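seq as requested:
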Amino acid sequence: MIAYVRGKVTSIDEEAIAIETEGIGYEILCANPFNFQDDLHNEIKVHTYHYIREDQQLLFGFKKKEDKLLFAKLLNVSGIGPKGALSILGSVSVPEFVSAIEQEDDKYLTRFPGVGKKTARQMILDLKGKLIIWLPDEENEQTIFYKEDVTSKEKRERLDEALEALKALGYSDKELKVIQPELAKSNQSKIDDLIRQGLQLLMKS
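struct tokens:
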């Protein structure tokens, strides 16, 4: 699992950027690669999602961690693949998208390429109530975390990354849903330890 890549941006094209680190060049697919234009030839950190299937391995990159986490959530929605998820992130801000989900605005959601009414309803069904931490506070226009303090936010992020890693190892969404409640109770402070605990739970289930 590649959580992020730190290195120098060496090239940018319509679909991806290339980052060189320690002599290795990583091709990273992005929603809007030219958003990195000001970073060309500079060293930056890109949050990445390592997408692994039998016939391909792809690296998707994001400037903000919440974009990466939303991308991962979208991949769990039936009918949404990596290209569709990337297209959504490339044309809307995270708070705006979450607001549409919470308001069940399927008319708004169907404006995205490849998203019909059925897929829009599936997104609402699968995601409503799970993304409200990214809704803006109307009073100060800053992101607030409902019913969560900093500690619980960090714990949730560790859980999300551990589940992503387990999925990359070949475990299905159905298998991961079985262990998620137990894994969420864990007090492990390191992602690697959380992944190991997840593997133990999967072996028992």
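The CA atoms of residues 161 and 191 lie 7 Å apart.
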